[in-house]
Amino acid sequence: MKKTIYTFLFLLPVCYCFSQTQLPDSTKTMDSVVLKAYEQKTVATVCCAVPLREPVFSPKTSLVNGLNAVAGVRMEERSPGSYRLSIRGSSLRSPFGVRNIKVYWNGIPVTDPGGNTYFNQFAWNNFSNIEIAKGPASSMYGSGTGGLVLLDRSGERWKDGITAEYITGSYNLHNFFLTARAGSRSGASGINNGAEHTLTYAHNQTDGYRIHTNMRRDNITWTGKLKWDKHTLTTSVLFTDMHYQTPGALNLAEFNADPKAARPAAGGFPGAVAAGAAIYQKNVLAGITHEMILAPRLKNTTTLYANFAQVKNPAIRNYERRNEPSFGGRSYFWHKLRIGSIPFNIIAGAEFQQGYFNIQVSKNRNGNPDTLQTNDDINSNALVSFTQVEMHNSRNTWGLVSGISNNGNRLSITRLNKYPVVKQQRNYRNEITPRIYFWKRFNTQEISLSWTATVSKGFSPPTTAEVLPSTGIISTSLEAEKGWNYESTIYTGLFKNKLEIYLTGFYFKLYDALVQRRDLSGADFFVNAGDIRQNGIEFRADYHTDIIYGAVIKQFRLRTDITLNHFRYGNFIKGSDDFSGKKVPSVPSSVLSLLADVDFKNGIYCSASYYGASSIYLNDANTFKAYPYHLLGIQLGWKKKEKGNIRLNIYAGIDNLLNETYSLGNDINAAANRFYNAAPLRNYYAGVALQWIKQVKK
């Protein structure tokens, strides 16, 4: 560990050696602490803004590096295009995909009514902000104990123009991004009316590091915003067409012998290559949001949306086809009033989602569907009604937010290929989930200091993929997991807020936790554990300053994120196995992330990143584990601003500079001990971006 950190620190002065010519804009960052998640306009720390910075997200194929730079957040990529996202350990339920985390894009629910999220449908240029709420968000966003992710373009400075970017690199990497903006800025020329349009296109492709990991994704979005009088109308449309191969996990002997290998044939099942194991996925998401000011202190925001996902998945044991249309809406009222000297904000609303899915599973014959095995119609809906009250004193030195929701989820599955046709269903009704959040400021002339405390309840029913897993056995007997979360955060700003420090401690006791299992064929299924005790500490220190060393350096920033987890099973006995007191698999006990950026006045910039994770247990019995690993990355670039608002950005970088062999996206509780999915060794990339911004006539 020390050697790795010394190497990281050594790279910082190396960046200083590059200096000649002129600097335009600094690297794009996102550091807002004014939160949208709970409609709070106060400084708070329950959420965090992810640094959308070029180095941590390059080469812009995935969001893994950037999200992993946030304490308490872990994103994994089993192979290009196959993502898992966890917030405070919620990956226990996700053999693949994103579950138990509610995701919104431009205010539109991306998580379907069955609880699944196709996070891989998004490309780098679909949004400018990522906001993450850790822990239960049920008080305003429905079921879920893992957390909340908001993706949108809020806070983005509007400028008419076109941006094109091309990136190439190791493993036949080719990424292309195009963003075009046009319209009349709202509020221009002293008027409140205006229209804005943003069109994006993204193409990502790579052969991947391992055998059978080819990936291709094409993504198109359009966002339009129209303002008139007291109305704002926002329309968002997203289309993604992607394909990626799935190589399958290896056991330890296979991983050590050749980590690039795809899963071989075993136990009567073909290997990943022979089976043509892959995902063919199409997503269409469209929504419209209307915001209306009804009175000086009263407004309504209403969103209506429709979503469709089509997935074809030839796998080692079968061929699955899913058609998943869904629709829904979300509406809430926001009212501001004052009682005596105390101002109040009151929010009340509801969200409804309805899905009609069909899943067909056939025998897989060389990557093509053969004999039909199961044919299931799934009717899934979710309804949440919520109320939240926020108050603070007249001097704005303390505040209290109290929210509560009533959640209902219903799921029915009708198996059509067996007679008589029987409908199996499960209702999870009237789950009340409160949340109380208190904050207090202790500001002085020298420092900024605040303290927050949160108590919240989480509720999360099984997703459709857990009730109907790849074994094909319907499991409506699964219970919803639920629990209480307690956390507290101390924030301080020093040296005129150039140094910001956050320290959070939390305790979350989860009952009936859903835990993944795998059978000998690699199919997943789920069971309820007794309870899980999740204790953790999250630390973040962010230092930034401008114009130093005689104006040679225009901007310098250093950020540190540390995560310490103590996750243990409580009473967890299944059959003859007693896992009580064991460490929860898939969760590293400690994680360290370091990010450093240096922008020189001559236009050259340099960035370095370090990510280190401790060992991770791979099964409930704690008999197998993935060993610690340390990742180091560096990027050098040069920006130049030409006359006529033309901007050029040329850069190159190296990921996994230390050439670590490690597994990312382990298969937890896998049969035959097939846990390991190798991540790329040292790899390189280079890119060029050209931007034209329309000049505004004065």
Describe this structure in words.
With 698 residues, this protein is mainly β. The chain has a single domain, classed as Maltoporin, Chain A (Beta Barrel). It is 6% helix and 56% strand. The protein has seven helices and 37 strands. The strands form seven sheets. It has a 22-stranded antiparallel β-barrel. The chain has a five-stranded mixed sheet with strand order 1-8-9-5-6, with no helix packed on it. It has a two-stranded antiparallel sheet with strand order 2-3. A hairpin with a 2-residue loop joins β18 and β19. The longest helix is centred in the first third of the chain and has 15 residues. It starts with a helix and ends in a 5-residue tail after the last strand.
